[in-house]
Amino acid sequence: MTQMSKNGFPVERIREDFPILKQLIHGRPLVYLDSAATSQKPQSVIDAVVRYYREENANIHRGIHYLSERATADYEAARRHIARFINAPDPRETIFVRGTTEAINLVAHSYGRRFIHADDEIVISAMEHHSNIVPWQLLCEQTGAKLRVIPITDDGELIVDAYAKLLNSRTRLVSVVHVSNVLGTINPVKRLVEMAHSMHIPVLLDGAQAVPHVPVDVQDLDCDFYAFSGHKLFGPTGIGLLYGKTAWLDQMPPFQGGGDMISTVSFERTTYNSLPYKFEAGTPNIAGTIGLGAAVDYFQGVGVEAAARHEHDLLDYATEVLAAIPGVRLLGNAPEKTGCVSFLVDGVHAHDVGTILDQHGVAIRAGHHCAMPLMERYGLAATARASFAFYNTLDEINVLAEAIDEVKEVFS
Ligand code: 7TS
């Protein structure tokens, strides 16, 4: 096995931190190439979750006893770490949610109720995940607003000139993906934000596939909202984050009502808690939050930039190796890419590709990747997708390529 990556990234040592990677699947070493669906978790994250349940399980923000105070302190410490990770100016602007999906739904419901009316327009792109399409469609159905879609090139890049033409005085929000989960395209989001802001239009960025791969600085991007999921960032499932600028969050009504989000309640009138609690109704995912805090600490220990360089090598190598296999076609050739390669094997359905790769211990995803309009754009029903994290090796790409050769043999 490779001891180091090309650029000295200590991948073999890092793999030791991920107990699941030691498994054999169908008698072969696991080659996990499905991190875009969910990433694997290092031992330190697993330990943080177990420690919370073993040593300090209590509800937060309400108890006056020792355990509750300790759990509250750890929960809020995680918020500060995660806020720093994306360079949010103030932890009060970071709201814990279930994941990217809930973050976008929160904005659609809350921002939507306050700011979106009949004939207003919401701009998304042709490469969105369903979770950045359907909440806006539901809002449009309720309000009579309209969805506008930025087209993309055959290579999988947003057409920025077409975006410029879509922005107008009726546009109330732009909501676009930072990194595509199918094409791997890194969108020029800073430029998109600048263009929208020049017309006083706020921007939400779906960062689900960006935070595990590229350094994210919400102040530098100047986005109004940023959403991501903890489980793709080496943390637990059921926890994620919505960053929002105070100027917007203060004007937005609560998303859900219940405990913790109120200041006072009477049957005549209820007043709401301050940020971020106004948007965190009910007992939150305390263990998940503490686990996500540990995940961010771990990732920063690995080094976000170093991880990104290693993944770049993986992507370059995978692109070269797969493109050289006769009968294999890659989808998504944008110059700025990260995280995954989508591919097609001539004459073989993507699901069959996935099933045969699984027999080799290689885990990939096959299907529409919750981006059916994007598949339609390319006239496809499905692709196979190998997605990477910093714990993957160049050798694993070789195993993938050998397994694809086997797929071709089976179907020849
Ligand atoms: N946005 C993007 C760009 C995504 O890739 C995903 C999940 C989501 C939103 C939704 O995240 P969730 O954590 O709320 O479910 N993408 C994938 C994927 O590519 N394969 O499985 C899930």
Could you describe the 3D structure shown?
The protein has helices at 11-15, 43-56, 66-85, 100-115, 134-143, 160-166, 189-197, 218-221, 246-249, 286-302, 304-323, 350-359, 372-377, 394-411, and strands at 24-25, 28-29, 31-32, 94-97, 121-125, 146-150, 171-177, 203-206, 225-229, 240-244, 262-265, 270-272, 328-331, 340-345, 362-363, 365-367, 383-387. Helix 3 packs across helix 10 (286-302). The protein has 2 domains: 11-32 and 303-410, Alpha-Beta Complex (Aspartate Aminotransferase, domain 1); 46-301, Type I PLP-dependent aspartate aminotransferase-like (Major domain) (Aspartate Aminotransferase, domain 2, 3-Layer(aba) Sandwich), CATH 3.40.640. Helix 8 links the parallel strand 8 (203-206) and strand 9. Helices cover 39% and strands 17% of the residues. The protein has a 7-stranded mixed β-sheet with strand order 4-10-9-8-7-5-6, with helices on both faces. It has a 4-stranded antiparallel β-sheet with strand order 13-14-17-16, with helices on one face. It is α/β, with parallel strands linked by helices. The structure holds ligand 7TS.
